[in-house]
Write a structure and sequence with these properties.
By secondary structure, this protein is of the alpha+beta class. Helices cover 26% and strands 32% of the residues. The chain is built from six helices and twelve strands. The strands form two sheets. Strands 1, 4, 5, 6, 7, 8, 9, 10, 11 and 12 form a ten-stranded mixed sheet that branches. Strands 2-3 form a two-stranded antiparallel sheet.
């Protein structure tokens, strides 16, 4: 009898519990998917009511270009700069479907070298499989679709907000928070990749260092302004890994597994719907109802 062996790792409870058949007894961990704060750069100023000489006026209370962290309780906090300690990095595709007012998202993967299932039963949020040799030769509707699809660098870890304020502009205290940041801007995608390239060259792990992030103003030909991150890797402090970090890492991995399982379930459901519709259409092609011929 062939026996499949696995290395015993008492420090990784989640994987060992799965290997030992404890998944059913552990129950679902999908509730963890809601425990991460969502980080992004907020391009618009936040307006609020401010009393000026006894009168309430609508004024800017939080300037544009601030980092915004949406906490699990749905409140928002802002900071001009943040420090990131990244535990996990993944990649995915994303596209906004304006017709249905929803985001189409793919699986999260280690890279974008393979086709990724998405939540509408397709691959890569509609991007054609394989390498596109001649983009201009594609039909216009396909080119438009591809331009709407964004490569996303997803980072998960801990964020430390520098001098944070609430949505009214008041100073607040915010502890270091677990976060997820879906970086879909093309320039930001490249900028936030530079610290990881630097770490790889020095054979260091991102979890051992803070990445200091600010924001830089950019504009488009119409005059509209937007902001992209700046990133500086802090190599002066080497964070020692402790047992608690193992637990945090396992939690982040579980979050990704739960997300990917949701995408797979949605993909299977949509594929089943599409196949059922295709079968119905096929049957209709073979059924012809002819009127009775007059005798």
């Amino acid at each position: 009898m062939t026996t499949q062996l696995t290395t015993f790792d008492s420090g990784n409870f989640a994987e060992m519990a799965k290997a030992m058949g404890m998944t059913q007894d552990m129950g679902s961990n999908k509730s963890k998917s809601s425990t991460l704060g969502r980080l992004r750069i907020w391009n618009q100023a936040v307006m609020g009511q401010v009393e000026v000489k006894g009168k309430m006026k609508n004024m800017e209370v939080v300037p544009a270009g601030m980092y915004r962290l949406q906490l699990p309780d749905e409140t928002f906090v802002y900071a001009e700069s943040v420090d990131l300690r990244v535990f996990v990095q993944r990649f995915m595709y994303k596209r906004y479907d304006s017709n249905n007012n929803m985001y189409i998202k793919s699986l999260m993967a280690d890279d974008l070298n393979n086709d990724l299932k998405d939540n509408i039963g397709g691959l890569n949020c509609g991007k054609p499989a394989g390498y596109i040799k001649d983009f201009q030769a594609l039909p216009d509707d396909v080119k438009t679709l591809i331009k709407q699809i964004k490569r996303v660098r997803v980072v998960l870890g801990e964020v430390r907000l520098v001098d944070p304020v609430d949505q009214d502009g008041n100073e607040v205290e915010v502890a270091v928070q677990p976060f997820i940041w879906e970086i879909d801007n093309r320039d930001a995608f490249k900028t936030m990749g530079e610290p990881f390239t630097q770490l790889a060259k020095q054979r260091r792990l991102p979890v051992q260092h803070w990445i200091n992030c600010g924001a830089e103003e950019r504009s488009i030909p119409t005059g509209a302004k937007f902001y992209v991150p700046t990133a500086k890797l802090d190599l002066t402090v080497n964070i020692d890994l402790v047992e608690e970090d193992q637990t945090k890492f396992s939690d982040f991995m579980e979050w990704i597994n739960n997300y990917n399982q949701y995408i797979v379930d949605a993909w299977n459901e949509k594929r089943t719907e599409k196949l059922s519709k295709e079968n119905e259409d096929l049957v209709e092609q073979f059924i012809e109802i002819e009127p009775d011929e007059e005798k």
